[in-house]
């Protein structure tokens, strides 16, 4: 007789065991994307695999409040709380975008107790941009 495996989760999915494995990581990269409408904070390991992420929308902010500095601060705190529990001690920070949440997110990251190796601005800059439309004829 074969022994049946105990299934965890809903009976529809039929998933066996826990899919989420907790990795102990010492060093990671924190990506902050701050647009005018939203702020997204993603925490990855050195190889780029996502460990934790959060956005102002998932934190409960709706509409124009998603682009505020307070929403960015809350978002960064939520994303970092899980990785601090997993043992992250050092991190590099990459900030992208022109939004209001840039400084607030960085302040929240510094307050979390993680040692920052460096903070880099990776906002894309055009070297000459798109070709402008041709002039209007009168």
From TrEMBL:
It is found in: Plastid, Chloroplast. One of its GO terms (cellular component) is ribonucleoprotein complex. GO terms for molecular function: rRNA binding; structural constituent of ribosome. Keywords: Chloroplast, Plastid, Ribonucleoprotein, Ribosomal protein, RNA-binding, rRNA-binding. Gene3D superfamilies: Ribosomal protein S11. It holds the Pfam family Ribosomal_S11. Residues 1-21 are annotated as: Disordered. One of its GO terms (biological process) is translation. Its main location: plastid. Residues 10-21 have a biased composition (Basic residues). Part of the 30S ribosomal subunit. Belongs to the universal ribosomal protein uS11 family. This is Small ribosomal subunit protein uS11c. It comes from Garcinia oblongifolia. The lineage of its organism: Eukaryota, Viridiplantae, Streptophyta, Embryophyta, Tracheophyta.
